From TrEMBL:
Keywords: Amino-acid biosynthesis, Aminotransferase, Pyridoxal phosphate, Transferase. One of its GO terms (molecular function) is pyridoxal phosphate binding. Pathway: Amino-acid biosynthesis. It comes from Longispora fulva. The keyword RNA-binding does not apply. Belongs to the class-III pyridoxal-phosphate-dependent aminotransferase family. It is an enzyme of class 2 (transferase). Its EC number is 2.6.1.11. The keyword Transmembrane does not apply. This is Acetylornithine aminotransferase.
Amino acid sequence: MSLVDRFNTAIMHTYGGPGLGIVSGDGAVLTDEDGRTYVDFVGGIAVNALGHAHPAIVEAVSRQIRTLGHVSNLYAHPTAVELAEKLLALTGRQGAVYFSNSGAEANEAAFKMSRRTGRTGVVATVGAFHGRTMGALALTGQPAKSDPFRPLPGDVTHVPYGDVAALEAAVDGDTAMVILEPIQGEMGVVVPPAGYLAAAREITTRHGALLVVDEIQTGIGRLGHWFACQAEGVLPDVITLAKALGGGLPIGATIAFGGAAELIGPGGHGSTFGGNPISCAAALAVLDTIEAEGLLEHTKVMGERLREGLPGEVRGAGLLLGVLGDGAAGTAKALQDKGFLVNPVQPDVVRLAPPLNITAEQVDALIQAWPS
């Protein structure tokens, strides 16, 4: 029986049937159970920032598990403290970090912070994806994902993404927070008009509401900047992170600045594995390697190389790109047959989110293989 057949027999079908059984990875190359290799332009959906089995992550995780594997949140350990200090340094701001295991949990923490403002109103956007737990699902603006599970935590208003006037009309003195993605990855790499985040900052500041920027897919260098909001000079009250932060190990982070960092006190929130030393060690290795290997600039260069070489309309930034065209699933299948993995995220959009250290040769090979 194949690995895929065993998966379909033994594992709950929350994601549908998998297309391949993957058994190993090395850099940007994955190997399936039959020994076929594929260049990975999915990147674990923007998770594998350094590809697979990167020596820095392997060394950091191996060293950490030999030293200290888990101590609970009753005690401090150096890797979590160092990671929090590093993340704050990258933002260039004073604040505090809450660690969890995933992007959904990072957004759940932000959601709970907003309730501690004494207000309950939340504004999110149509098409947003903020996770699938009940709180995060209430923020997610995709009815197909949320409707089967109603009622959800209430007082969430969804406005059209990128529409400043709609945002202006929805935010008032009862609004606790506005949560936005710099780019909507799950909706097909949708880019808002220039100045959208800055307008959201101005509106939320004027009404005393928190601005939460969900950088779970766009952060940690994915767009060629540590955080997408930095590229626009926007200072949110909260940044949420996950995916690329751990480079393949589960970790989420909610970074709060100013008064937002004081909203949740002891007993207000928690996560058993949040800030686990092994995941924190992996995250430090990811951040240090991105710096040491100049991957922010490399990401911009490789993103432009893809944008210029691929046919038709390409939207997005850095190495989070959406290639528009009918029959995305067929395009993905044709590329898989040629040894490339891509993500048909919408019927008419193929999403690319390869490792940040993807090579020029691998990029050129995908361009050559793309169906005309």
